[in-house]
Amino acid sequence: MLREGQATAIQRADYQAPAWWIETVDLAFDLDPAKTRVLNKMRIRRNPDVPAQALRLDGDELNLARVMVNGGGSSFKMDGNQLVLENLPEGHEPLDLEIFTTCSPIQNTKLMGLYVSEGTFFTQCEAEGFRRITYFLDRPDVMAMYTVTLRASKNDYPVLLSNGNLVDEGDLDDGRHFAKWVDPHKKPCYLFALVAGKLVAREQKIKSRAGRDHLLQVYVRPGDLEKTEHAMNSLMHSVAWDEARFGLSLDLDRFMIVATSDFNMGAMENKGLNIFNTKYVLASQSTATDVDFANVESVVGHEYFHNWTGNRITCRDWFQLSLKEGLTVFRDQEFSMDMAGTPSARAVKRIEDVRVLRTVQFPEDAGPMAHPVRPDSYIEINNFYTVTIYEKGSEVVRMQHNLVGRDGFAEGMKLYFDRHDGSAVTCDDFVQAMADANPASPLTQHLQQFKRWYSQSGTPLVKASGQYDPTARTYTLTLSQSCAATADQPEKLPFVIPVEMGLLGQDGAALPLQLQGEASTSSSHTLVLTQAEQTWVFTNVAQAPVPSLLRGFSAPAVLEYDFSDAELLTQLAHDTDAFNRWEAGQRLALRYALQAIRTQGEVASDVMPAAFISALRDVLRHPTLDAAYKDLVLTLPSESYMAEQLEVVDPQRIHAVRESMRQQLAVALQADWAWAFDAHSDTGAYRPDPVSAGRRSLTGSALLMLCLAARDSSDTLWPGKTYQRFKDAGNMTDRFNALSALVYSGATLAQPALERFHALFRNEPLVIDKWFSLQAGACDCGGNVLPAVKQLLKHPDFSLKNPNRARSLIFSYCSANPGAFHRADAAGYVFWSDRVLELDAINPQVAARLARGLDRWRKLAEPYRTAAREAIARVAAKPDLSNDVREVVTRALGKDLA
Fold first, then answer.
1. Are the C-beta atoms of 481 and 497 separated by less than 8 Å?
2. pLDDT at residue 898 above 80?
3. For the chain, is the Cβ count within 10 Å smaller at the N or the C terminus?
4. What is the mean pLDDT of the chain?
């Protein structure tokens, strides 16, 4: 028997509107860690559009004390975890339903529902956590008006927060006090939140463009207030941006952010009371890196933008999750790019986003957990908060943006809100609004076919070929598309694929584009591929061109074109599209890596040819390119990305090849790295802006390369300089870059640096997370990383119950360090299975994320493949496994399950 009952797949096709509506909810909490009392008064009525049936309310780990209807007792029964009321009055008049329950927040290690973290009450209700607070119709299409009264010890919980506006507060007997909150907007229960504890707040009053006054508050534990300035600035920028870009204003008197260190996700967009992982709120130059600062800005923006795209308009059902998440990721990406300012900084952000998509989402689309952006079924909805729903969903929105244009997209958004504000709707409703607002666009022309991006899983392959006719001065470009079968769908139909492209001359200059039969010319053009194969002819092409295809990564597809090395070197040196310029370097590096991986024998020390090394030197020394962009171009494709290009994966071979390539870059460009360090190391007073951050990033890469080069020559100069920079650094970015260079290069000074780092920051949990993560991600030398990780599990600062700490050590080893994890003796897989089972007993949601670490086991070469399968089977064999983990490992094993 499963711990959570027999797992049954929920089907999108089975959706039915609720038989009952909940109009108002009045919640009263008497907060106590061991026994919290919850009085839930609801006004309900039958849905006249649905045949009359019993009221079935969801619950989980609740103690039911009382049920009353219209002020009197009522009969009820329990059906599993559901409270069933069968004999309610007939008709469509509203009924008053009162339910009194208790729960134990201190025992809630799942961190779903109401729980306690370091003496403070928090909630997490998305997707199905509200049922752990009270019996309810726990589904997103039931939207109600909420009034919440919180009562607690004033000494222990001086701050009492919930959604909406504070309408009353005061003292009670016995040292207790209360606060009453009213949310003026109806919402689904997954957006409910409460917080109670000893907290301090940074406050800022603002005035909207509409002239309305608002209070912004960022709540943290005492001692962390000085680290909230950047989060507050990010929130103010988010409010201003959404007004300026989309005309969407803050709709509450106050907007609150609260940070907690015990949180399963990054953050949660509860209406007016966002609850955040501390990782995405707390930032100071001494404790946070540039990446941390950028992530705070992005996540604060993401959650605030949900106020409209997710809260004001929400999902009809959880299959529509990308309706809010894909759209809001697109919005936060646009926000970050607009905040970055310069075209080069925007390109850096775009490349970073695409790297995540290709290294994480593309493998998901090819693995056992493959699912469409709008899934058709699930067993545990928490397993579908995925890169497909978020990042690929964002790319689907971006394609719509590009097909209708920036102004057309704004018009589509306006129509979307005009039609659906205050409603729970579907992905189809969003796309339809975009199309209806732009009737002449390619999106509208191919609307039904475009919707396949929501219904089909998999990553399309676009093959391109070109033919130049010097006599006719024409260039004929043929594009074809296909999509391989996925675990969930054997057959695919053609997608609508926008392919932005340009043509370069042999000298790298942009050639004018003129399609046959058209008079206009341009330097870039978007072709819309809708058929299995299509051909376009360009006229007045003066010379044989180098095609620049899928510019800006205009569609989430794999591009296959038989580029010569010379053509890619031309793009790397001259392409005006920053993404394709970077992509040319990645293609070349990947080409040489795969050649070396497939070659038998010892890995050569000169995997990359001299021409490519020289081209990279030119980029590194380029007088006008931004430092951040240079750093991306000089970064080799990851081991995971290399693995996805192979039919059979030998992780140790891939690791050896990439390490050889990195060492070659370090030695061949040693003088250039020294120049880069000297030219970029002084960034002045600390500012986390893109230019300064880019300089620090390139400096950090230079230090690592110089330490690697020193390893070859046994030189102590650069490791010594790096250790000194580690000690003297005035900000966490420079300090951590120096520490990372020592650790990743295996320098003897790494150990004293690690000890010094821990001593300096032992009271800073987020910094200690970095300390754990760095050691778990270190380059493996003779199998030394796993024993170090096992020892760190025993460290007094490690706690498996804290998701951030578990991710920092266990996930960093199992999911982000393939060279150390995939061991021939299978010890890495045994460690993984032990940790999945251990976590599952505490927090199934986090355990399920770790369980995804062996999704791609079928691609592994022997002996890894058999050992990985045995590890997955060991997890699957546990009889009381959670539904969360069981769904992941069952799908991973597939037909091998028997």
1. yes
2. no
3. C
4. 97
701-753 pLDDT, tens digit each: 999 999 999 998 889 999 999 999 999 999 999 999 999 999 999 999 999 99
Backbone angles phi, psi at 201, to 5 degrees: -135, 140
Whose structure tokens read 């699930």?
378
pTM for the whole structure: 0.98
Asked if pLDDT for residue 661 goes beyond 90, the answer is yes
Q: Is the sign of the CA dihedral 866, 869, 871, 876 positive or negative?
A: negative
* Residue-wise DSSP of 261-308: S--SSSEE--TTEEEEEGGGT---TTT--HHHHHHHHHHHHHHHHTTT
Stretch (H or E) spanning 450? helix 447-450
Say if CB 408 and CB 437 are below 8 A apart: yes
Q: What is the pLDDT of residue 342?
A: 85
Q: What is the pLDDT of residues 534-583, one digit of tens each?
A: 999 999 999 999 999 999 999 999 999 999 999 999 999 999 999 999 99
**DSSP annotation of 808:** I
Residues 6+ apart with CB under 8 A from 286: 731, 732
Q: How many other C-beta atoms lie within 10 A of the C-beta of residue 625?
A: 17
Strands across the sheet with 120-124, in order? 113-117, 120-124, 194-197, 159-162
**Annotation marks residue 303 as catalytic:** yes
Contact 235, 281 (CB under 8 A): no
Tell me the two tokens of residue 216.
Answer: 């912004």
Residue 898 makes CB contacts below 8 A (sequence gap 6+) with: none
Query: Which residues on adjacent β-strands are paired with residue 27?
Result: 40, 148
In this predicted structure, the answer to whether residue 896 has a pLDDT above a threshold of 70 is no
Q: How far apart are CA 279 and CA 502, in angstroms?
A: 41
Q: Which of 874, 877, 872, 865 is nearest to 891 (CA)?
A: 872
Of the candidates 128, 269, 297, 303, the residue annotated as catalytic is 303
**Other CB atoms within 10 A of residue 491 CB:** 7
Do the Cβ atoms of 336 and 682 come closer than 8 Å?
A: no
- Mean pLDDT for the stretch of residues 59-68: 98
Cβ density class 825-850: b for 16+ within 10 Å, e for less: ebebbbbbbbbbbebbeebbbbbbbb
* Rg (the chain; Cα; Å): 28
Distance CA 771, CA 481 (A): 45
Contact 550, 459 (CB under 8 A): no
